[in-house]
# Entry
Amino acid sequence: MQDSPAELIQVLSNYDLGELIHHDRDRRGTVNVSYVIETVREGQRRKFFLRKYKRGVRRDEILFEHSLVEHVARQGACPVARLHPTRRGQTFVHGPESEGDAEGAFYAVFDFLPGQDRYTWVGPRLSDAELHSAGKLLARFHSAASTLRPRGKRAEPKIRDLLKIIGSQWEEGRAKPKGTAFDDFLTRNFSLVRRAITTTSAALSRPTARGFPEVFIHCDYHPGNLKFEGPEITGLVDFDWSKIDMRAFDVGLALWYFCVSWEGRSDGRLRLSDARVFLMAYQQALFSQPALAPLSAAEIRGLPHMLMAGNIYVLYWTLRDYFGKDVDPEEYLVYLRHGVAFTRWFASRANRGRLKRMLESIPRSGASASLRRMRGAAAPKRALPRG
# Structure
């Protein structure tokens, strides 16, 4: 979709939302194409968020995502944007591209949520209060979504099966180089990541991990998909990667996004104190929710492997985009270096030991004494960062 109002007007003709008077392309997304639009109807101006889904997405995946969004919005526990129905009562529009694509494209219109887009997924450094809010919200999302029977189906395999696919595609990655610094760095660190994929795949295939609870997971829960007012979260967005999978994987992936440093020599280092704040908030929120139990002792012990699975998941996206699209090699080299840096940090026995000791301090499902301590704990008080 180009920055032309013609296609936007055509999409909006399916809705009763008024006349388009302004539109701005949202440049933050890397998968779909989205706009902040403004309309006027009966003299009233309103803002919405219009999304054009990526090429190749299936109708069943749209139905799955939208049933999840509608269900969570109805629960009222999470600040999720409401979907606007078309005149025919559908949650999306399916029509031909302006350039004559026979497959057509899917579009949807959401409420525009208030708050600041304070972070992206690259280089976030949240305050304790923001981390506490983020951990609590992920728990509330998991709990709210746990009672849904969805329409449609997400095409992507669960992480346990996906790791086998990732292993094969990692092997194939070196066979189609573009002759850039990205390829050179990939070659130098190929074996390190391959070992991590093999080890993580084996860990997630063990009987204990196979017994981990599966729920609706966000699968893209990072600071760039949250909107803030002060330390509070006013918006949770981007559910198109959501699926049913181990909730411990969603927690591990979130910890990777929120708590792994991107800064200089610290690149790839897990900030253990940040991870503890996030996890304590997650557990605390679920101790008071009847629909879903907090993380169990086994899930907490398995979080190191879930962290690495999250790292591999993002490396997989990096590799697919680099080899499958016309992207900036220098930009994607930053992502590749970051994932490799975490892999190196995790490979250290001393670092894994520190991570294990931190996790041992996290209260878990069934720990009554820990529950009492958490209920009496004060909320984080560290000041918000300026700017």
Q: What stands out?
A: Residues 297-324 form the longest helix (28 residues). The radius of gyration is 21 Å.
